[in-house]
């Protein structure tokens, strides 16, 4: 029975951690253009878009 509870907790965790379809697209678009997803861009970087459905910045 404990294994069942543990399995259920893991499944719920992965369902919540799975990105939405839009967030995966903009993140992949950023990474394919040699950008990095960050909350804030560093001094010599510029913002080139968004990542994770607009929650982070795509910095180059």
From TrEMBL:
Its main location: cytoplasm. GO terms for molecular function: CCR6 chemokine receptor binding. It comes from the Eukaryota. The keyword NAD does not apply. Keywords: Antibiotic, Antimicrobial, Defensin, Disulfide bond, Secreted, Signal. One of its GO terms (biological process) is defense response to Gram-negative bacterium. InterPro entries: Defensin_beta-like. One of its GO terms (cellular component) is extracellular space. It is found in: Cytoplasmic granule; Secreted. Belongs to the beta-defensin family. This is Uncharacterized protein.
């Amino acid at each position: 029975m404990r294994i069942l509870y543990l399995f259920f907790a893991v499944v719920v965790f992965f369902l919540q951690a799975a990105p939405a379809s839009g967030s995966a697209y903009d993140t992949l678009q950023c990474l394919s253009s040699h950008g990095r997803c960050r909350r804030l861009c560093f001094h010599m970087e510029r913002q080139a878009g968004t990542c994770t459905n607009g929650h982070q910045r795509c910095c180059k």
